[in-house]
Design goal:
The protein is mainly alpha-helical. The chain contains five helices and no strands.
């Protein structure tokens, strides 16, 4: 901010009482602008927090429906039962109570490989 005091910025000169009043007068609009910006920032942060909460709630409400339309769920039962057998070398799958649960376990632990086996 340029003022008639710019030449004194890098000095140790002490402003007189009259200069101090003038400097404070020069600073007043800037301080008012900063206060307004702080209020706007606070409002914007509150808006962002509210929007994030809304987004999180929408994503949570979508999860069950997204699971219903997943590729793994639409696979024929025969393929669902074959996939865990083709990957039976995975130790975790040996403890699955049924082939379908084995595939869910496999999907959770190695999704890319599961898709490759199921699709091929």
């Amino acid at each position: 901010m340029e003022s008639r005091f710019s030449h004194l910025h890098d000095t140790n000169n002490i402003p007189s009482d009259e200069e101090l009043v003038e400097i404070q007068h020069l600073l007043a609009p800037c301080e008012a602008q900063l206060a307004q910006l702080d209020l706007e920032l606070k409002a914007a942060e509150a808006l962002v927090a509210r929007l994030r909460a809304q987004r999180k709630a929408i994503v949570a409400s979508m999860k069950p429906l997204n699971r219903l339309v997943s590729l793994m769920r639409r696979m024929p039962q025969e393929i669902m039962e074959l996939a865990p057998r083709r990957l039976c070398h995975l130790q975790r799958l040996r403890f699955a109570p049924s082939p379908a649960e084995g595939l869910q376990t496999m999907e959770g632990n190695c999704p890319q490989r599961t898709r490759t086996v199921v699709i091929n």
